[in-house]
Amino acid sequence: MQNKQEIYEKLREVLVELFEIEPTKISLQSNLYTELDIDSIDAVDLVIKLKEITGKKIQAEEFKQVRTVNDVVETLHNLLNAPAA
Prior knowledge:
Elements: H1 4-19, H2 40-54, H3 60-64, H4 69-80
Helix pairs in contact: 1-2, 1-4
Keywords: Cytoplasm, Fatty acid biosynthesis, Fatty acid metabolism, Lipid biosynthesis, Lipid metabolism, Phosphopantetheine, Phosphoprotein
Main location: cytoplasm
Function: Carrier of the growing fatty acid chain in fatty acid biosynthesis.
């Protein structure tokens, strides 16, 4: 899971699996909160699931700025492709 398309496809699977969102409702432009009805508790569940999948620690601060599916893809892409410290 390195490129943005792969990340997007995995994220869609997770959103469908965790929150029973219709796959057709999910696009890169979809707003997690207003369009997909994700609340703050759902967001925590999403972060935990993404951490399991990626094996990377996702900072809550990074996720506070996230609004759209594309924001999540960008955040994960940056995290997965960051040089190891």
